[in-house]
Amino acid sequence: MENKNRNTAAIGVFDSGVGGLTVTREIMRQLPNENVVYFGDTARVPYGSKSKNNIIRFSRQIIRFLKTKNVKAIVIACNTASALALETVKEEFDIPIIGVIVPGARAAVRETKNGQIGVLGTEATIKSETYTKEIRKLMPEAEVIGKPCPLFVPLVEEGFAKHKITEEVIDIYLSDMRKSEIDTLILGCTHYPLLRSRIMAYFGESVHIVNPAYETAMDLKQILEEQKIANTSGEPAAYDFYVSDAAEKFKKFANSILPYDVDKTQAIDIEDY
Amino acid sequence: MENKNRNTAAIGVFDSGVGGLTVTREIMRQLPNENVVYFGDTARVPYGSKSKNNIIRFSRQIIRFLKTKNVKAIVIACNTASALALETVKEEFDIPIIGVIVPGARAAVRETKNGQIGVLGTEATIKSETYTKEIRKLMPEAEVIGKPCPLFVPLVEEGFAKHKITEEVIDIYLSDMRKSEIDTLILGCTHYPLLRSRIMAYFGESVHIVNPAYETAMDLKQILEEQKIANTSGEPAAYDFYVSDAAEKFKKFANSILPYDVDKTQAIDIEDY
């Protein structure tokens, strides 16, 4: 009985901006009974070019905000924050917090046949080598090639995902990696699944593309079941969206990628938390 | 005598990131006796997609920080902050504060022969229509065509200014404007002078390109003279650089565009101000 309120409490999900909606989409699909409170840090996006200290500070503020919404678990739906802040904030807060990197690394190890794995991400994610470390924990002999793709986030955020220019930027960043022996490629930034079909077409069928969002939702499901805090109320799930800036722009973007009509997005002052 | 300390005090210059260095460069050239304290808000860059409320808040914090450095005047070397925050902060602080838009508008009005003026800027700058209003104050019959170019800032910040891809993005954004009758074009974002030669080549000789940075330095000079606070000490000028994040990356960029060797850049926590 003690867990009843916790069971119906929401999952907190956060990202630097709209990218984490690709993770939210997977949670909606795979855990349709769960309520979600999403926070997009649109006032401070992008995270990928910023320092570890600031990413930890931003993550703490957001977790404090999400806790005011009484969430039962938190998903850091941002690779940069997962790479730089997860380890620290996990120790500081008393609810389950998961990131996207461990699930992504596990999926890549499961899929690869030759142990050669590519990782695309922001500058900060690649520099942290967190994917490499997590992959090697599971497969010590793996070879991991990381490549920062800093223009991918602005291209997606500015609505250029389907534009020809994006194809050229893909070629600039990834021509070397295409010549390598990798058979598995991790989309190590939550914006990148929005470029998935283009990246798949660029590498061809010999390379398996891993989207950590799917794996993360599976991990979350398992944690909720293990801790007996899954929502079994049978009520329709509620989704709430908060941002630190420019709510209208966010709403438009959210509606273009979620299987759900986002009719209200609230802007809050994240520096107050 | 009362003004002696004020005379040798520095000019405070700020921008969302590295763009304002193009204004700093003009101040160094035209006011070689003036000390400068520069602040780049690299933790919160870019400003162009963010809301007026946040831009005002960011600007207030930065002005409070610059005042701790005892500056005698402030240059908002960012078009977005000039467009959205200058009017408000001018009323709130007791030192001269100038932006880049009024000087840019004045130069455009001086150069145009047919009264058709183009303005390139961030989404926030163009949406504010501040350039249009300032131009029409001086030339009520002017026709002003604004165009937001949101990918220009990340292209410059990621070091793609001289890349072929930038030429294609210029064509995507500006092909309509090239077909128009404009004879004068304002580079209404401090990053854009770094794309100047490409934009000039794209429009050809019939279009005069206005860089508000140059005009802003001239305005500053006039204000310092009028208020009798120009630095006439004859001491070599000192330049100090502060950022809110990732000082090393900033330093590298600064050294690529300033006629001065930036050997030290300090990161501060701007949210403390």
Automatic annotation (TrEMBL), chains A, B:
Coiled coil: none annotated. The active site is at 78 (proton donor/acceptor), 189 (proton donor/acceptor). Keywords: Cell shape, Cell wall biogenesis/degradation, Isomerase, Peptidoglycan synthesis. GO terms for biological process: cell wall organization; peptidoglycan biosynthetic process; regulation of cell shape. It catalyses: L-glutamate = D-glutamate. Pathway: Cell wall biogenesis; peptidoglycan biosynthesis. It comes from the Bacteria. It is an enzyme of class 5 (isomerase). GO terms for molecular function: glutamate racemase activity. Substrate binds at residues 15-16, 47-48, 79-80, 190-191. Its EC number is 5.1.1.3. HAMAP family: Glu_racemase. PANTHER family: GLUTAMATE RACEMASE. Provides the (R)-glutamate required for cell wall biosynthesis. Belongs to the aspartate/glutamate racemases family. NCBIfam families: glut_race. This is Glutamate racemase. It comes from Dorea longicatena.
